Amino acid sequence: MRSFRTLKAATLTALLIAVPFASAYANETPTSIVDQAQGLDQGIADARQQNTITPAEAQRLHMRAVHITQAAEGRGKIPAVQSRHLLRRLDNLDQTLQVDTGGGFAVNDDNAESGIYPN
């Protein structure tokens, strides 16, 4: 009976260790990335319509959003690592849009108050 409990505990421990590693390599659908890219693209269009960014800047930001969308849509499922990378690229693009429209500041901006980040 005692060996059964030990085996059960060892199996549970192995499972708890393996799950995070398995999820790190699990494939994901690109839907959330594409949805966020479309939302960001709408923000770019809104900023352009409100004349808070130039047409050239809007085009540059739009093309970056398109490239991210294409990278996500290129496959039916994408590895979790690539998904996180694409989401980081979208976040960086969103930060750029906020800085360009005056809604944020560059991280290396000397005039920025310490510890305060864009809205």
Give a short synopsis of this structure:
The protein has 119 residues and is mainly alpha-helical.
Describe this structure in words.
The structure is a single chain. It is elongated, with a radius of gyration of 21 Å. By secondary structure, the protein is mainly α. 70% of the residues lie in helices and 3% in strands. It has a two-stranded antiparallel sheet with strand order 1-2. Helix 2 (31-49) runs antiparallel to helix 3. It has a domain at 29-101.
Could you state the order of secondary-structure elements as H and E?
HEHHEH
What level of helicity do the residues show? 55-70%
Strand order across the largest sheet: 1-2
Helix-and-strand structural type: mainly alpha
Task: Note poorly predicted spans.
Answer: 111-119
- Major beta sheet, specifics? 2 strands, antiparallel
Could you tell me how far the N terminus lies from the C terminus, measured between alpha carbons in angstroms? 59 Å
Radius of gyration: 21 Å
**Oligomeric nature of the chains:** single chain
What keywords describe this structure?
mainly alpha; elongated
How would you summarize the topology of this molecule?
Blueprint: H1 2-24, E1 27-28, H2 31-49, H3 55-73, E2 78-79, H4 80-101
Antiparallel strand pairs: 1-2
Helix pairs in contact: 2-3, 2-4, 3-4
